[in-house]
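User: Sequence recovery, please. Input:
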């Protein structure tokens, strides 16, 4: 019968003394725990330690690292401040520029509208000037016609005045023949005013013809009391002068 393999052989048993003398494995000291995450700035600023190449103490290296970290932070803060000021400047420029641009656009629109209004007004002015020119021509024509009518009216008035003077002389002559000196003088006093009207209506270069008639009328007035016969004769001369004037002015060639 085969003995089981797991049966303990007394010879194979280990002596407790020998077992205790077997050296136990030494416990390894735990490694120094390093932080899993380090500050990126520490990683960037950390320099390889060269204990065999430099003699500077660790404190000086640490102070240098702090100084670099400080200046880096200062640089970042400065850049941030500059960026903030830059955004503020851009915002201020945009805030001031946009209203000015809107005002410029509004002014341009108003200027365009003003230009259109000016063009319209110039067109209206041109039309009015044309109307005024037409009216001026019409007024000129009317003025010419008016002057012609005035000349015609003056001619009629002159002719009427000459006829009235002739009528006064004829009536005064009849009164003198009837020995009515007072009636003759009354009639001839109005004849003097008629001669003045004729002189006013005549052209300037023809007014001298009235002076002999006025002198003859003054002579007749003096002779009515002293020499009626001579007065009648001078009235005939005055009548002939008036007839000649009428013929020169109004007779057609």
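Assistant: Recovered sequence (253 residues):
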């Amino acid at each position: 019968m085969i003995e089981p393999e797991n049966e303990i052989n007394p010879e194979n048993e280990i002596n407790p003394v020998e077992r205790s003398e077997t050296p136990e494995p030494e416990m390894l000291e735990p490694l120094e725990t390093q932080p899993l995450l380090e500050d990126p700035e520490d990683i960037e600023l950390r320099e390889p330690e060269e204990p065999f190449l430099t003699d500077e103490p660790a404190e000086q290296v640490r102070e240098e690292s702090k100084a670099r970290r400080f200046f880096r932070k200062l640089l970042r803060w400065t850049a941030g401040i500059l960026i903030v000021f830059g955004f503020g400047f851009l915002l201020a420029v945009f805030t001031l520029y946009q209203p000015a641009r809107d005002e410029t656009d509004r002014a341009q629109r108003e200027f365009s509208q003003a230009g259109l209004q000016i063009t319209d007004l110039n067109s209206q002015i041109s039309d009015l000037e044309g109307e005024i020119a037409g009216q001026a021509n019409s007024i000129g024509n009317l003025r010419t016609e008016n002057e012609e009518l005035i000349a015609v009216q003056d001619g009629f008035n002159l002719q009427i005045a000459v006829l009235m003077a002739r009528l006064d002389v004829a009536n005064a002559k009849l009164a003198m023949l009837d020995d009515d000196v007072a009636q003759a003088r009354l009639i001839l006093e109005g004849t003097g005013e008629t001669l003045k009207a004729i002189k006013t209506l005549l052209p300037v270069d023809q007014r001298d013809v009235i002076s002999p008639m006025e002198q003859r009328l003054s002579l007749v007035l003096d002779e009515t009391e002293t020499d009626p016969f001579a007065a009648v004769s001078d009235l005939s001369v005055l009548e002939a002068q008036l007839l000649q004037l009428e013929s020169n002015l109004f007779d057609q060639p």
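The two ends are 197 Å apart (CA to CA).
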